[in-house]
Every structure is written in structure tokens, then in C-alpha cells.
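User: Some background: our group keeps a shared notebook of sequences we're curious about, and every so often someone picks one and asks for a predicted structure to add to the entry. Today it's my turn. The entry only has the sequence so far, pasted here. Could you supply the structure so I can complete it?
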Amino acid sequence: MGESDELVKVSVLAKMSGVPAATIKHYVREGLLPEPVRTSRNMAYYDPSLVDRIQRIKELQRTRFLPLKVIKAVLDESELDNQDETVAATIARVLEQAEGEERTRAELLASGVVPSQLELLTQLGAVRPIPGRDEETYRGDDVEILRVLGAARKAGLTEGMLPVEILADYARALSKLVEVELSLFRRGVLPDVPAERLPALTEAAVTLSERLVVLMRRKMLVPTMRALADRARREADDDRDDDPAADDDPAEDDPAADDRDA
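Assistant: Of course. Here's the predicted structure to add to the notebook entry:
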């Protein structure tokens, strides 16, 4: 088969890496993996040496909860050796650079952001224009929030399923969480830590806090959904018990039913 003798199909690469074939193809589309060698329109072969890179991408998604864009930048800048400090420093640098990304209102609308949603998010304080600019401009996390909402719409989550108003509830809940975290940090870290160690500890605290919140939310999601479903079933059963018509036997008032029984 020539060149394809040393390469493998995506199904084999998926088995070797433990990552689904669809995910590998998505990594290729996003530029995190090189294009495969195509021998025909429906036949493509991949370099098996990509297994390590695929697993590292998945690990960064799983443990650091980074978007693919940031992961790509990290992979492009670092060989991602086993020294976690090196990885953490690279990630911090990439995230700092990403914070400088800016988009004007016109650019956001051209990319598919709905004007009414942008206005509502601004009113809620979920996103804020950069002050002092002649043209309404958004930066960093604000741009990423709008991207996430846009991706949700493209995935089929309509306004009715995921209303932007929910971000107000998120903001209130997270505000309380941040107050607790800062209080703990002030009481437990600031008094006993030398000043030169504060930057590293602060970065570690922020990273770990974000990971814990995501993990705990995910862990609580399934049992909470089950509890809500059970409550809905109980309420439906109670409604049936309270409905006298639900206990009536239609056959008792149906003369034709007597004829059928006879």
C-alpha cells in the first residue's frame, strides 16, 4: 500500500489513544493535529506517533478545563514535558495573552451575536465594554462568554432552552462563592505566607478553585437531575390521586360496555 503501510486508520488511532475517532477528527479540524494522508476521498491514514499528543490534549481538557484554542497555543509553544511547573507557566502565559483579544460590537454582530442578547448581557453585567473607547469594544473573557453562547446556539440549544437571563443567576451564585474564597484566602493564606510566595500560591489557588467548581458541579448534576425527575413524578402521581375523574371507570357509564360484557 506504499505510504499507508506505516500509517493507521482513524479507528486504529482511536483504539491506541483511547480517544473516540470523532474527537480525533475534531482535533484535526481545529488545527491541533495535522491533516491525515488521504489515499482517496473516503480513505485517510494517520501517523501513530500522534497518540501522545492526542492524549495530552484530552488530559488538558480533563484536568485544566482549557478551551481547544488555548490548548493549541500551549502545544505550539511547549513540548509539554512531565514538569507540571513548565506546563502551568506556559498555560498562564497563553491565558494572559488571550486576555488581550478584543472584538468590537460590529465584529461580534458580524460573527453571529444577537444584538438583543448582547444588550441584555451588558445590562446584567455579564459582559462589559472597555471604558474610554470610541467604539463599543469587548475583551478577553467577555469575548469568550459570547463565543460560548454562540456555540450553544449552533449546537441546537435555543433561546428557550438556554436563556441568557440565566447568567444573572450564575452571577449571583458565583458572587457568593467568590466572597467565600476570598475570605478563606485572607484568613488562611495571607497572614502566614511570605510575600515572595504569594503570586505562585494565588495562581495555584485560582486554578484549583476553578477545577474544583467544575468537578463538583459535574458530580452534583446527575443526582440533582434524578431528584428533580423523582419529584416531578411524585407531583404527577399526587395530581392523579387528587383528580376524581382519574378514578372513574368509563365502562360504568357506558351502556354499550354492558352489552359487550354480556
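Suggested note for the entry: The longest strand covers residues 37-40. Residues 198-241 form the longest helix (44 residues).
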